């Protein structure tokens, strides 16, 4: 934290203004954020810290969305089922989807082959982005329409995947000409983006495991709280 403050101060000395800081989502980064004055708590969240060279300027703090996505993927696999106000998301639906892909069913949205062995394999970051995607949600929607027994109650899983995908698109935006949620934050896109952020905050505070333990109060909360902090930033 002290090195970061020193760096920001040196940049200010040569005319470069730092508006925001992005870090990975590790235990050390969380400690650094707290040392800077960031509060990562659903009840008392503070997303900015004081600029070391300007008493009137605050610097926003972000966690890298790819790391947050991986944390949520690992939490989802660990809990197996996540309850929220819109239903229940089941990890087993993804396992069943991979099994169907391995059988090479026709007339369905194909899931990426890199998700093979989903049940027993810890995926890399790029695979986590494929997991929380529109293509996987579309595949589940199609299977739901077929009324196949393993997918008859997958509405909650679809909703959960779509929400995480939308959050990732917002915070992984890199192109000023991007479309939809992948576009920049502008007056004309603010309403749509803000709607997703409000929905995420409303849902994340209700997430619980099968024992009704609130997830954002537990050990695997950082992925969810990280996206909430990004939303505040």
From TrEMBL:
Span of domain Transposable element P transposase-like GTP-binding insertion: 66-184
Mind telling me which InterPro entries this protein's record contains? TNP-like_GBD
Q: Which residues cross the membrane?
A: none
Q: Which domain of life is it from?
A: Eukaryota
Which Pfam families does the entry mention? TNP-like_GBD
PANTHER family membership: THAP DOMAIN CONTAINING 9 (PTHR47577:SF2), THAP DOMAIN-CONTAINING PROTEIN 6 (PTHR47577)
What's the protein here called? THAP domain containing 9
**Species for this entry:** Hylobates lar (Lar gibbon)
